[in-house]
Design a protein that fits this description.
mainly alpha
């Protein structure tokens, strides 16, 4: 399908691998190379099925025993989604970074400004997801930058629920 061999089977296999490698370092060590190869192959595809495979690789990498180099490679692949003009791909990128964040919080430092820029999207769902991720990644060194962006978003938003949620997060 779009030059990707059996993408749905690849995705299903990765889902199975994530179950097998969960909380098992020895099994996860066998999965790292498979995920790395799948990421490299899918990265060459700039179509939706390639992004779907990348996203499933990220979910799998986040579910198994974590390996820093694999998570960095996964974040690099997903950052291409964040740079896209498509709101759907940006949503996928934010979700992917959120999954990686659970296993390796330091990875978001590199992508912080790209994530912050997603707050300016016209897509309300993307804004809400970005807000949740920004809230999780806020720390002592980036609180001022993130809070300023959140305040700017607060002033421009007209959705009462979003504004209420944003005020709670800023507080």
């Amino acid at each position: 399908y779009h030059r990707s061999p059996a993408p749905w089977i690849q995705i299903k296999i990765m889902q199975i691998l994530s179950m097998l490698g969960r909380n098992d370092q020895k099994a996860s060590e066998h999965i790292y190379e498979i995920l790395s190869q799948a990421l490299r192959r899918a990265e060459d595809r700039t179509n939706n099925i390639g992004f779907a495979i990348i996203f499933q690789c990220i979910l799998t990498a986040a579910a198994i025993y974590p390996q820093q180099s694999l998570l960095i490679e996964a974040a690099s692949c997903i950052s291409k989604c964040l740079e896209s003009s498509s709101a759907n791909l940006k949503y996928l990128g934010i979700r992917g970074l959120g999954e990686i964040f659970k296993s390796y919080p330091k990875i978001l430092e590199e992508h912080q400004m790209t994530v912050v820029d997603c707050l300016e999207s016209k897509d309300e769902t993307l804004k809400k997801l970005t807000l949740d991720l920004l809230f999780k990644m806020t720390n002592g060194s980036n609180i001022e930058v993130i809070t300023k962006k959140m305040l700017a978003t607060l002033h421009s938003s007209t959705d009462p629920y979003f504004r209420q949620n944003l005020v709670a997060k800023i507080s």
